[in-house]
Design a protein that fits this description.
The complex is a heterodimer of chains A (251) and B (204).
Chain A: E1 5-13, E2 16-21, E3 24-30, H1 32-41, E4 47-51, H2 63-70, E5 77-80, H3 86-95, E6 99-102, H4 104-108, H5 110-120, E7 125-133, E8 139-143, E9 148-149, H6 154-164, E10 168-173, H7 185-194, E11 199-202, H8 208-216, E12 221-224, H9 226-230, H10 235-244
Parallel strand pairs in A: 1-4, 1-12, 4-5, 5-6, 6-7, 7-10, 10-11, 11-12
Antiparallel strand pairs in A: 1-2, 2-3, 7-8, 8-9
Helix pairs in contact in A: 2-3, 8-10
Chain B: E1 2-6, H1 13-22, E2 26-30, E3 41-44, H2 50-59, H3 62-71, E4 77-80, H4 82-85, E5 90-91, E6 97-98, E7 105-109, E8 120-125, E9 127-128, E10 143-148, E11 150-154, E12 160-164, E13 170-176, E14 179-182, H5 190-201
Parallel strand pairs in B: 1-2, 1-3, 3-4, 4-14, 5-7
Antiparallel strand pairs in B: 5-6, 7-11, 8-10, 9-12, 12-13, 13-14
Classes of the chains: A alpha/beta (251), B alpha/beta (204).
Chain lengths: 251, 204
């Protein structure tokens, strides 16, 4: 049986790992390499590493750093932030990434996702969708680390990119990022119902129960950062809890 | 042990090479079929689409050399994910494309059952249906990491080493003599994956 994945997300700032709230108020949370080593040692299901400044600074992630981190990682590794060209994807795969996460660049050039899928295969391309709700409650996509509104409906955007061939979608509501009050279950459910792709719920997890809620709303995998950085809770503990609730996890 | 990793364009070659080194082999990522004579083992990795991969193998001059290495020189070989699928007679992804024809079968799209999604991505159990050195010292029905939409429909029951439950069940490992194929990614399957690579390196 296919297992539900628990995926720690690590955010790279200019000096090591950071974690913020609502894509802002960044706090230093230590060095990247020891974190990857610990997660590898604890045998997590998968890791996501995002360079939060790359797009803003119009550069690719630091390939040498990714290579160093990847060499300590024998579970699947997704790298994102500044993934805007075919060459960047090639370099990241060479550095040891297994998948790349594309967000902003997918809005800028409609051929980019298509080309990336054709060249590297669906399994390699993960689409990141960051959303906020407006006062009427409608969801809209945001790019550039949540700073730019794209005026696009996330469901339409997901369907379009499913047709382009992306392999997975990471959905996060910016307003819940780092708040540890739970995922946006509405958008997770809407998305999981609309597309046939695996959905990874992200942003908002603070307790094991939140993970369960997202899984019950159709998420095939759940990602968390603050919960693992700032509380006693661990990916191992999360699996123990989920298993007790009848969710199939990898031991 | 000198392990040739066939580089025919794209793929997570760095991950594969790293896992081989950790398992005690020497990884040689190669663009040239001439390197086969220096190799004790061959790994055919692969991500992407079947027709593109076959096209790239032809373009790189690999096809005849690999068939000879597998069938005549009998060098132990391991196909990973798409690399396993390329061992088949033909693939049905975007039309019919002939494969390497090393292990009888065809590669078809998986048909998800109720509540299942495609691609099949994540950790799933690999259930051994036949004893093999490839799975020595790994836990029985251990979890390995998968990410794929197509599967290997084996022509001969005897070639099936292991199966997994998804989309009505599919073949997750195959063997013909010294040629192995695994649908999962041992290089990304933590301890069990590394043990499987060690087992492969111990052959031949």
């Amino acid at each position: 049986m296919l297992k539900t994945r628990i995926i720690p997300t690590l955010l790279l700032g200019n000096f090591g790992l950071v974690k913020g709230e609502r894509f802002d108020a960044w706090r230093q949370v230590g060095a990247a390499l020891p974190a990857v080593e610990v997660y590898n040692l604890r045998d997590v299901d998968e890791l996501i590493i995002l360079d939060i400044n790359a797009t803003k600074e119009m550069r690719a992630p630091d390939f040498d750093l990714i290579s160093e981190l990847a060499s300590s990682c024998f579970v699947p590794l997704t790298v994102g932030g500044g993934v805007a060209t075919i060459e960047t994807i090639q370099e990241l795969l060479r550095a040891g990434a297994d998948k790349v996460l594309i967000n902003t660049a997918a809005y800028r050039d409609e051929r980019f996702v298509l080309e990336a899928v054709r060249k590297f295969g669906s399994q390699c391309i993960v689409l990141g969708i960051d959303v906020r709700r407006d006062i009427s409650g409608a969801y809209f996509c945001y790019s550039e680390s949540g700073s730019k509104s794209e005026g696009v409906d996330p469901i339409q955007w997901a369907l379009l990119n499913e047709a382009r061939g992306v392999g997975e979608i990471v959905i996060q509501n910016i307003e819940l990022d780092g708040m540890m009050t739970g995922y946006d279950l509405i958008i997770t459910n809407l998305l999981a119902s609309a597309v046939a792709l695996p959905i990874i719920a992200s942003a908002g997890a603070g307790q094991y129960q939140h993970l369960l809620q997202a899984i019950e709303c159709g998420a095939m995998a759940v990602s968390a950062a603050s919960m693992f950085h700032f509380t006693e809770q661990t990916p191992g503990g999360a699996k123990f809890y989920l298993e007790s609730k009848g969710i199939s996890v990898r031991k | 042990m000198k392990v040739l990793i066939v580089d025919y364009g794209m793929g997570n070659l760095a991950s594969v090479a790293r896992a081989i080194e950790v398992a005690g082999g020497r990884a040689m990522i190669s663009l040239s079929p001439m390197d086969i004579k220096k190799a004790s083992h061959i790994v055919l990795p692969g991500v992407g689409a079947f027709p593109d991969a076959m096209h790239a193998l032809h373009h790189g001059g690999w096809v005849e050399s690999l068939i000879e290495a597998f069938n005549v020189q009998c060098i132990p070989a391991l196909g990973i994910c798409l690399g396993m699928q390329l061992l088949a007679d033909y693939g049905e992804e975007h039309g019919i494309t002939p494969g390497l024809g090393i292990i009888g079968g065809r590669v078809c799209q998986m048909v998800p059952q109720a509540g299942e999604r495609l691609p099949h991505v994540g950790w799933n159990e690999v259930i051994q249906v036949k004893q093999s050195e490839l799975f020595a010292r790994t836990e029985p029905s251990a979890d390995y990491y998968f990410v794929h939409k197509y599967h290997f429909n084996a022509a001969n029951q005897e070639s099936i080493l292991a199966t997994s439950n998804y989309a009505g069940g599919f073949v997750s490992a195959i063997q013909r003599e010294h040629v192995f194929g695994v649908q999962f990614h041992p290089e990304k399957s933590s301890k069990n994956g590394l043990q499987l690579i060690r087992n492969f390196l111990a052959m031949g």
